[in-house]
Amino acid sequence: MVRGTLFLGAVKGWDWGVINAGSLVCQRIAAGSAVLSVAKEGGQQVSRLARGESTKRSRMTAEALTGVLRERGVEYLAGAESEELWLILGGSELRKRYAQETPFLMQVRDLNGELVAGYRTLNVLGITPSRRGVLYHRLFSTQEEDFDSESRETQQALQVVSEALGPLKQRRRITWILDSGFDDVAVWRTIWEQEEHVLCRLKHQERLVEFPEAEGQWVAGNIREAQQGLKRLATAQTEMVVRRGRQTRAKGQPVPVAIRAGGGYA
Description:
Elements: H1 2-31, H2 42-51, H3 62-78, E1 84-95, E2 106-109, E3 115-127, E4 132-140, H4 150-164, E5 173-178, H5 185-193, E6 197-200, E7 208-212, E8 218-222, H6 223-227, E9 231-242, E10 251-261
Parallel strand pairs: 1-5, 5-6
Antiparallel strand pairs: 1-3, 2-3, 3-4, 7-8, 9-10
Helix pairs in contact: 1-2
């Protein structure tokens, strides 16, 4: 009985000693901080932080941060002396090949085309001849509980950016520049309804359109047929990692581009 009481007393004494020593260490840490040294109960603030018991949480979220970037981007682009504003919408994949515990991981493609764990992102960059601004960034996963669809993610990006640029539309011609992944009538319709222009690399060459013949008469047909009547206006050249002709592997090489145009497609 005596030994048990002695043991219990020793344990309690050791426990309180550790707590008191911890408090002293936290006070010393606070004393070395320019902010905490003048704060009320700085040592307790350090102690709560170390134990994860702080009742104060940061209000910073991804949406709030990107909202600030968008606000600053619009403000910066508004200062450019240009009648044109180009919006480049693009998707990319954030790869987490070795991640296991990160929430809502989905399958994405790596640079070799293999499936790995990761996320998808949507980004919008505003460009004038002299300025650049980040207007949208969204990281998402199809595994999230409230995920709707990738089409809905695209629509949200178009609408959020357009709303943010509302004050600029009176003095800027706004054109969206899209890759072939956004060759979608629903995407184009949203842009047109927002009274904006669209330039898109086509994926669906079989898309039906109306186009004028040489005599000026309008006829119905697909994109391939319409291209035959386009006039060559200019040529350009860029460098891309592609596979051309009989090449077995893609590599960085010059890629010529012919720029053609025609009137009034519907």
